[in-house]
Design brief:
alpha/beta, Fumarate Reductase Iron-sulfur Protein, Chain B, domain 2, FAD/NAD(P)-binding domain, 3 domains, 5-stranded parallel sheet, 18 helices
Length: about 500
Amino acid sequence: MGKPTGFIEYLRELPPEQSAIERIRNWDEFHLPMPEDNLRTQAARCMDCGTPFCHNGTVINRMASGCPINNLIPEWNDLVYRGLWKEALDRLHKTNNFPEFTGRVCPAPCEGSCVLGIHDPPVTIKNIEYSIAERGWQEGWIVAEPPAERTGKKVAIVGSGPAGLCAAAQLNKAGHWVTVFEREDRPGGLLMYGIPNMKLDKQKVVSRRIDLLEQEGVKFICNTAVGQDLPADRLLQEFDAVVLCIGAGKPRDLPVAGRELKGVHFAMDFLTANTKAILAGSRNNEFISAAGKDVVIIGGGDTGTDCVGTSIRHGCTSLVQLEIMPRPPQERAADNPWPEYPKVYRLDYGQEEAVAKFGNDPRVYLNTAMKFEGDSNGQVKAVHTVQIEWAEDDAGRFVPQHVPGTEQVMPAQLVLLAMGFLGPEQPLIDALELERDGRSNVKADYGQYATSIPGVFAAGDCRRGQSLVVWAFDEGRGAARECDRYLMGSTDLP
C-alpha cells in the first residue's frame, strides 16, 4: 500500500449530498462530486491487511461477504492514492464491465467485510469505485472497443438487465455476433425501469453504456417478448447459442380481503410506470400517482425504499412502510460477526427523505396487513394492520403470528406491495420446456450455467432467484464464459 498508516491517520468521509428537502423536488441523482484530494485520502485508508476479505465473494449465512465479482479492491485503492486513475480504471474493468452501475446501486458487501471495519468504519470502497468509473467517462478513457475479429457465431440473449448486459459485453468481446432481445421499449431491464432515476440516471448513465455496447457491435431488439412476440423455437433455429437472463419478475402477492381494490399495486408496476413517464416527459394514463394520497408500502428492502422516495417526490400526504421483520440493532449482533454483511439499522435515502418531510422514519416493524378496505367505488381507503411476533410452529419453523389486541386501521388511497419476488415468469421457460428447480427457477448449475437444452444457458435472477445486481454481473460474465467454451471448444474469457 502507498500509505501504510493511512487507516490510522484518516477518518472515513463520504461525498456530500443534496439535502433531503432539496432533492425531493426533482428526479436527478443527488450525490455531489468529491474533490480528488479527499478521494485519494480515502483510498489511503485501505490498509495492508495481508488477507483482504473485501474481494473474496463468498456467501455466509445466505448473504454475500465481499465482492461477488472479485473486484481487485486493494489494487485500485492503491492506484487512486497514487493518482494513477487510468491504471485504476484498467484494474477495475478486469472484473467489472459496468462499475458506474455498481458504484451507484450496490449495497457494498465489500465494505461489510473490510478488515478495517472490525474496529473502525470501513474504507469507502463503493464511492471510490464510482469515482474511478466517472473519471474514466469524463477523461474519455471509456470508449468503444469492438473486437478485431469475428467468429461468425451468433448468440441470442433474452433480457437486457444486468446479467444480460454483462453476458452481451463479454460474448461480443470474444468476437461473436450478439443480439439482445428485450420486451420493454428500452434496453436495460432492471437498470432502466426497476431502479428510480434519482439512484441511477437513465439518460446520462444507463443509455450512455448501452450506446457504447451498440458501437461495439451488440444489437438490441426491443418491444419483443420471446415466447410471445417471437416464437422461442426460432431462437434455437437461428442462433448458435442462447443465454437466458430474464430475471425473477414474478412478484410476491398478498392474498388478503380487498386485494382486488383499485389503488393496490405491485411496487414494480408503480416504479416502472413512473420511470417511463419521466423519460417520456409526460404523465400518461398508465402513470400511478401518489400525489395527495395516504400511501402504505408493504415490505422493506430496496424496492420498498424506492417506493418511499418516489411517493415523496410525487407529493404524497402521508407515508407508512410496513416491515414484517424486527427492527435491526444499531450495532452488529453476536450472531452477525464480521465478515458477514452487517445487518444493522440504517436510514437509506428514501427513509432519510421521509424523516425530512414528515419528521419520522416511515417504517413500522413487526407489522403486517390483514385486509384492505374500500369505498363504494371500489377504491382502497384503508389498510387494517396487526402486530406480529415470530414463533415456532409444529414443524419447528419460525413463522409470523398475529398478536391479539394490536389491530389498527391506517388510511390509504394507494397501497404498494414490495414483498420481493417468487421467481422468473414462466411462459418462455414453458415454451422451451426447460427443467426447473424446486423454486421455479431455470435449473442450471452455478459455474456451468448450462440448462437442460444443449446450447441454452441461464444466468442471473432467473437461475439463482432474486438477488443483487452485482451477483447478476457475476453470473452474466460466467454464463458468457461457458457459452464461449460451448461455441469454440475453449475460452479466454475470465
